[in-house]
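Hey,

Quick one before I head out. I ran the complex with 2-acetamido-2-deoxy-beta-D-glucopyranose overnight. Inputs first:
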Amino acid sequence: MNCSTWLSLILVLVQPWPCSTSPRNSGTPNTEQPVTALRRVKRGWVWEPLYVTEEQTATEVYVGQLKSDLEKQDGNLKYILTGEGAETIFSINEYSGKIYVKQKLDREKKPFYVLRAQAISRKTQLPVEPESEFIIKVRDINDNAPQFLDGPYVVTVPEMSPADTSVIQVTATDGDDPSYGNNARLLYSLLQGQPYFSVEPKTGVIRMASGMDRETADQYFVIIQAQDMVGQAEALSATATVTIYLSDVNDNPPKFQQELYSMSISEEAPVGTTVGRVSAEDADVGENAAMNYSIEGDSLDFFDIITDNETQEGIILLKKRVDYESKRRHSIQAKVVNRHTDERFLEAEPFEDKTIVKIDVEDADEPPVFTLENYVMEIAEEAVSGSVVGMVTARDPDNDDSPVRYSIVQGMHFNRLFSIDEHNGTILTTQPLDREIASWHNITVTATETRNPEMISEATVYIQVLDVNDHAPEFPKYYETFVCENAVSGQLIQSISAVDKDDSPQGHHFHFSLAQEAASNSSFTVKDNQDNTAGIFTAKSGFSRQEEFAFFLPIIILDNGTPPLTSTNTLTVTVCDCDTEVKIVYCRYRAFMYAMGLSTEALVAVLACILILLGTNPFPR
Ligand SMILES: *[C@@H]1O[C@H](CO)[C@@H](O)[C@H](O)[C@H]1NC(C)=O
Ligand SMILES: *[C@@H]1O[C@H](CO)[C@@H](O)[C@H](O)[C@H]1NC(C)=O
């Protein structure tokens, strides 16, 4: 076995170390292990771990030496360097195998270089050692400061959050080697923001103190510092600002701006008039400041309150007209509550406030007021002219109590039936009234203040004319009554009834009878049916036209008025020959003409004409 065979074998054993173990091994500044590995190798390349510290400015810095066991110090070996940065970055002394770095290196740009070494014999120009790959590692220095890549930060957190609520986590990065030393080990601290905020040194989580109140300050600028080298003296650092806004929660109740409000309203103001506004303030914003108003007190009948959603004011409205003369000052309690409440703060203070609102009623000149809106009076009909019907009264409600004057408003076609005493409101008749013409007289009276004639008011007076029994009952119509010559006694020849113009609240009751003078030897009787009718009956059998052509029955009708009135009504009974129908017709016309006062001859002629016109022979026999 010759030398070169040995060398190859050794190199096979050695070679894996610089290439494969060095990246794995990087970070641990342990230089012992590779050396140990090498000691077992007796011959071939002798490898020291090769490091270059980054950022060195000197032009030629020794890195390490290539060495072969075969080196005999005779200058026959020539070392050659190839690979990444050979010649440009790294140089080699071809006699000694010493490697130098020629420029400043930056680990953050390139953490290691892969190179190859060769040793050749100057005499033979043949490799003494086979080519071998090795690595030069760049050793980290703390040349990179931490950086807040995401800063500046802006974050919003609800006010009144519990202590240590996490606000945000800030993170800085460091370009240095996190696996070597403390160059990239960061420590967070707070430069500005105490005592409201704190930061966890290792994690960068910012936490807040308890009870932070938006209404005191709603914006905080926190400055966070990140230091590498775990904050040691030579550490590099960076800062970031964190703008923290506090968002609102409903932690403030509404408060009235005044403890007492004074308002006034005219007694003339119509319902719905705005009396005034009350307003409460709420330190919160938006929904948390939304409020509702209500009122309490004795005068709730008169006032109402609504919430103006735009201005958040309470508007007091007139619900019912006020009256200076009956109450000059109203006092109500206005209440305001938050529309939405946060239970967390309810116990601390009630979310409502109250205030007193005094409302003065202003006097206004008002028209007179009648004691009644309308009056109902009665007057008996036929009462003599000048009779008192009744009296109306009106008063000026105002303080000065002006006297009033009364008058009657005259209708267009009003025939003056009434007069009024202008001073005392007494209504009198000017003429007797007839209920049967008009049972009601509805008139309008006015009252006018003498001190201010513009102040006028009206009232209606309904005057009912009360009935007196001034009308006797009478037949409702003309009765055309016949009796046949062959009539028998007790036969009904006519039913009669009666009417009365007077009013009878309990209903009319009429009584029928035959007048006294006729009753003794009459051919007829009157039978009262007790129902405001009566029947006329024959009192004998057989009548003769020759003997008596017509009977005149005086019938007395009695009413039930007070005083009762009677009248005598004459019923004419005509005697007829009832053998044929024609004769009844003839009889009827004769009776009619007779009643009209015509002579018998004329009647016959007229009737004959009528019958001829009707096509009937009036003289059949
Ligand atoms: C009203 O005044 C008239 C005189 O104008 C007088 O006759 C009458 O008695 C008075 N009536 C009352 C009720 O005072
Ligand atoms: C007057 O008033 C009475 C009662 O309200 C009513 O019955 C009557 O019809 C009225 N008469 C006139 C003419 O308006």
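Residues 282 and 356 are 18 Å apart (CA to CA).

Talk tomorrow,
K.
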